[in-house]
Inverse folding.
């Protein structure tokens, strides 16, 4: 039996940083994200009686380092008595570099694992399974603009806007394709124990979520820009004040931020966000995209540019 799934990564505008339950991987805060249609992960699962262990191939190369997390995800969805699997993953963007590859990978893996078991599609269940392995992955189960809420001992995702209601573009300036120095899982656990700003971060998330939700409802770009940049810089302030400090930015990241601030001064509707990596994501309106690409491409240290509109929920198919 074989199943395939394709899923898109998502970037948070109102971020998740910190866990309220590490064993269940439940986030400490609610979050809001954009699903990115231009970036994807394709995941194939082949179940076989011939295998003696799981095998993982990412972009054509055997991958040992991510195998245990992938096997753990398959155990969760399929049960521990499952057959071993060959998992073949293909990604059209750099992985483990702060471009949310875990969100597209684990959402695709959960969808493919359920498909291979012939399980009926269930977005909330799939989101909690994906979130159990990687918090941000839960949001990739829906397209457009997505909210993730903490509900008692689980999470719930909701689409706030579909891909056509408010089309947004994301210009991604890649400033370093290398693997990040510390994983977000490890870094956020360090933050929760050592940053003096951590409790303030948690306490102030609700107002940011409310403001962003309202901005999406009213399609108010300026409102969304202000609260997103504020929330992003707050998360990075928690990272910077973690012991030992976690600094994902490089010089080009900062130069891109200044360039985006200059563009804003000249009246361009654009704002920045950064995650656990040095890449800059500039959110803009589709009609402004070309000017943003041109400006960011001029900056020293920008290696390449990717663009994306909003993307849809994952898709899957099966084969005997
Ligand atoms: C900075 O989802 O990678 O991208 O649940 O430990 O796998 P784990 O963390 P992960 O963290 C994402 C953090 C972030 C912000 C966000 O996507 O909300």
């Amino acid at each position: 039996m074989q199943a395939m799934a394709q899923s898109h990564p998502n970037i948070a505008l109102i971020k998740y940083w910190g866990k309220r339950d590490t064993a269940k991987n439940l986030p400490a805060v609610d979050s809001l994200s954009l699903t990115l249609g231009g970036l994807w992960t394709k995941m194939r699962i082949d179940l076989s009686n011939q295998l003696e262990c799981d095998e993982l191939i990412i972009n054509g190369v055997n991958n040992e380092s991510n195998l245990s997390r992938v096997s753990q995800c398959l155990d969760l969805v399929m049960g521990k008595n499952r057959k071993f699997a060959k998992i073949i993953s293909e990604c059209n963007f750099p992985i483990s570099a702060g471009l949310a590859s875990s969100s597209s990978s684990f959402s695709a893996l959960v969808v493919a694992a359920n498909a291979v078991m012939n399980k009926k599609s269930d977005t909330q269940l799939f989101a909690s399974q994906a979130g159990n392995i990687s918090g941000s992955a839960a949001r990739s189960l829906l397209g457009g603009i997505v909210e993730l809420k903490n509900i008692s001992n689980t999470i719930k995702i909701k689409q706030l806007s579909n891909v056509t209601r408010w089309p947004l573009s994301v210009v991604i300036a890649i400033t370093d394709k290398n693997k990040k120095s510390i994983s977000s899982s490890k870094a956020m656990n360090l933050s929760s124990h050592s940053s003096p700003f951590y409790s303030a971060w948690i306490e102030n998330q609700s107002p940011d979520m409310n403001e962003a939700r309202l901005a999406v409802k009213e399609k108010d770009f300026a409102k969304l820009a202000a609260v997103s940049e504020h929330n992003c810089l707050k998360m990075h302030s928690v990272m910077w004040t973690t012991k030992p400090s976690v600094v994902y930015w490089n010089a080009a990241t900062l130069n891109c931020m200044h360039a985006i601030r200059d563009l804003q001064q000249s009246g361009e509707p654009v704002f920045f966000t950064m995650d656990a990596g040095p890449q800059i994501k500039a959110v803009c309106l589709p009609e402004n995209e070309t000017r943003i690409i041109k400006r960011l491409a001029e900056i020293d240290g920008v290696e390449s540019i990717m663009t994306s509109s909003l993307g849809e929920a994952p898709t899957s198919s099966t084969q005997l």
Q: What stands out?
A: Residues 98 and 277 are 4 Å apart (CA to CA). The chain has two domains: 2-164, 169-309.
